[in-house]
Recover the amino acids of this structure.
């Protein structure tokens, strides 16, 4: 599956990824990286060309967000979204 770039594309995020027994979501990663960089949500929103509300929704794992906006925020944070084949039984 290749990433969609259509501005109207919706993506379901907040997929649970087990890491060393813990559950980490995309929102958790975004929040942690933003804090590591010393940015407020409003700062990240301005830098990514999105609203503060969008950043808040992303960090709280809203199930549907525009992929182009998600990618804009991730770009500011130096993060990327990847797809991988699931292990059998997941």
């Amino acid at each position: 599956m290749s990433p969609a770039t259509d501005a109207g594309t919706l993506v379901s995020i907040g997929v649970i990824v087990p890491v060393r027994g813990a559950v980490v979501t995309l929102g958790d990663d975004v929040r942690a990286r933003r804090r590591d960089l010393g940015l407020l949500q409003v700062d990240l929103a301005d830098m990514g060309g999105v609203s503060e509300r969008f950043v808040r929704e992303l960090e709280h794992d809203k199930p549907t967000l525009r992929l182009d906006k998600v990618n804009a925020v991730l770009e500011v944070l130096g993060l990327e979204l990847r797809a991988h084949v699931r292990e059998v039984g997941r």
